[in-house]
Amino acid sequence: MRILINMSYNGKDFHGFQHQPGERTVQGEIEAILSEMHKTFTRIHPASRTDRGVHALDQYIHFDTELNIEPTKWAYILNSRLPDDIYIKSSAEVSEDFHVRYAKSKKTYRYKMYTSVPDPFKNGLAVHIDKNLDINKMNNAARQFIGTHDFTTFSSAKAVIENKVRHIYRCDVETNDDTIELVITGSGFLYNMVRIIVAYLIEVGSGARKDETKELLEATDRTRIPRTAPAAGLYLEEIDYGW
Amino acid sequence: MRILINMSYNGKDFHGFQHQPGERTVQGEIEAILSEMHKTFTRIHPASRTDRGVHALDQYIHFDTELNIEPTKWAYILNSRLPDDIYIKSSAEVSEDFHVRYAKSKKTYRYKMYTSVPDPFKNGLAVHIDKNLDINKMNNAARQFIGTHDFTTFSSAKAVIENKVRHIYRCDVETNDDTIELVITGSGFLYNMVRIIVAYLIEVGSGARKDETKELLEATDRTRIPRTAPAAGLYLEEIDYGW
């Protein structure tokens, strides 16, 4: 039986989602519990392998089990054993040909930054920018990402995927109390793509560089944007499988 | 020259304010920097020694220095070297007979709890209560703390102070988004007093015990309230020296 889990986690104290020997990871915490319950190593598969320090408000994972446990009860069982920085929102049975990673979806990421004085309570949860940011300029530059583009300029050189064309449905910069937030929805994202887009938008907003979104997309040249914004501001906000 | 520092800190990853060998403490972080700068051990004095896990939005400390540094510059110097979970809001010179702890003040504490589903992003910053709470009942019980009372029933047995009479100016339970917050202002607080009051108010709000604030104050008997609410919800919100 394949179990689908919907969950959130605060990435601050994790070394990312993916298992790494000797490090505290989201995958490691969950697989340890499942493997003990199944008395054999039990692998989980995530919709998105978030990096070290990145948060998730709406992550999906699946795993296969032969244990005779009511599918909706897995949420309760896991929550009773997981640390407080992971929360399982729900669990359900899915078809054995469903795969959280390969099923078609729209993903939404949110990136939180702020320019007021440094706030110890935002530490690890939003990124402090020590410059004034012009939100209109950022928004004008952001909106031009909407549509279908080759995102080579805005992806890590480490991305090994050949096809770097992605479709962006939404790309807005909005304010929320004292945070400035980029919200971006796409058919998929390349490695570090959101954080590189944010690094570019911060430069546009602070006046360090002009709005050249179109030209940069056409250039398909990663060296044009050498920076990557810190992980702490990034949230996997929603995965929409179209259900 | 005596320097007064106004600061905030996120207590989540500290073993409390007070220096403890081998533990990460607020005092330890600051004294390490000051002692290195002064080339001799330099002690700081806090207005309140917050416990492990307790937060401060408005803590004061003072220290004495013979370094020829403009008093307002200490905030900048310390922020440039302190970790991100401590923030120095300002620094100024004060008279050498001013002592942050013994100067008369009103202190305000806030305690944050919530009853919605567990939220990994509130972990360490607000306390999840797994019961429904009747805020009106809590408020009625809370308001009776206002005035001058002997708080023996509501203080830790570890409190060695003889005089347990304190004056409470304000004691309200209010809601703020999805948190329920106790705000209490007093002439001073005994050890664990706010957390014991909160433990009692949670029992009143959940229906586990009736409102008996007056009777409990008169009883001057700590055994009547065996619980202490967790540290993570507690914030030192304001210290008012009457300036």
UniProtKB/TrEMBL annotation, chains A, B:
Keywords of this entry: Isomerase, tRNA processing
Record's catalysed reaction(s): uridine(38/39/40) in tRNA = pseudouridine(38/39/40) in tRNA
Active-site feature positions: D51
Transmembrane stretches, start-end: none
Domain Pseudouridine synthase I TruA alpha/beta: 8-102, 141-241
Binding, substrate: Y109
This enzyme's EC code(s): 5.4.99.12
EC top class, as a word: isomerase
MF-aspect GO terms: RNA binding; tRNA pseudouridine(38-40) synthase activity
Keyword Transport: no
Superkingdom classification of source: Bacteria
Pfam families (alphabetical): PseudoU_synth_1
Gene Ontology biological process: tRNA pseudouridine synthesis
SUPFAM superfamilies: Pseudouridine synthase
Statement: the UniProt record of this protein carries the keyword Isomerase: yes
PANTHER family: PSEUDOURIDYLATE SYNTHASE (PTHR11142), TRNA PSEUDOURIDINE SYNTHASE-LIKE 1 (PTHR11142:SF0)
Family: Belongs to the tRNA pseudouridine synthase TruA family.
Quaternary structure note: Homodimer.
HAMAP family: TruA (MF_00171)
Biological role: Formation of pseudouridine at positions 38, 39 and 40 in the anticodon stem and loop of transfer RNAs.
Protein name: tRNA pseudouridine synthase A
Organism: Aliicoccus persicus
Lineage: Bacteria, Bacillati, Bacillota, Bacilli, Bacillales
Gene assigned in the entry: truA
